[in-house]
Every structure is written in structure tokens, then in C-alpha cells.
Specification:
Blueprint (H helix, E strand, L loop, with lengths): L2 H44 L3 H28 L3 H10 L5 H6 L6
Helix pairs in contact: 1-2, 2-3
Length: about 110
């Protein structure tokens, strides 16, 4: 095994690491999105805005992380535009991060 074999192994390890992070953030983003929806319902039905004040910023950070990681995964896995747009659209749909995390092309 020469130097190119170890570089290839290192590249595979970096790909695995970024896709693992993407999966974790996708699931966290999906959960935070659903919790934010519940918090919004509670805010307007019970006049209790605390949940939105807490979940809003958390979801915002996770959403931004999701987008950044999705673009990095695109670069490392050479996704085409259609795949990238699908993954980005899944972040908009409540619970869509669960779909993104289960993608078979995240290898």
C-alpha cells in the first residue's frame, strides 16, 4: 500500500465523517422544526411564547448548519444539482430532515 492508498483511505474517512455529521444535524433539524411548529401552536392557542423564543434560535442554527453541511456533502460526494436541490428542499418540509438522513447516497 503506497501513499495514494492511504490518501484514498483518508478521503473515505473524511467523507464518512461529513456524512455522519450531516445525518445527525438533519435529524436534529427535523426534530427542532417539529418542536417549533408545536411551540408556535402553543404560543397562539395558549398565549405562551416561551417555546418559540427558545426553539426559534435553536432551529435557526440547526437549519443553517444543515444547509452548510448539505453543500459540503454535495462537494465531497459530487451530487448533481437535482440531488442538492432535493436535499435542500427536504429541510423546508416539516420532518424532511428525517428523509435526508436516510438517503442511500450518503456513503
Amino acid at each position: 500500500c503506497g501513499p495514494s492508498a492511504s490518501m484514498s483511505e483518508a478521503t473515505l474517512e473524511r467523507r464518512a465523517a461529513i456524512t455522519t455529521w450531516f445525518r445527525y444535524v438533519a435529524v436534529a433539524e427535523a426534530i427542532s422544526w417539529l418542536l417549533l411548529i408545536v411551540a408556535t401552536i402553543v404560543k397562539y392557542s395558549a398565549d405562551a411564547p416561551l417555546g418559540v423564543h427558545v426553539m426559534g434560535p435553536i432551529h435557526g442554527v440547526l437549519f443553517v448548519g444543515y444547509v452548510i453541511l448539505a453543500l459540503e456533502v454535495r462537494r465531497r460526494l459530487s451530487w448533481d444539482s437535482r440531488t442538492t436541490l432535493t436535499v435542500l428542499a427536504e429541510s423546508i418540509v416539516p420532518g424532511g430532515g428525517f428523509l435526508a438522513a436516510r438517503r442511500t447516497d450518503l456513503k
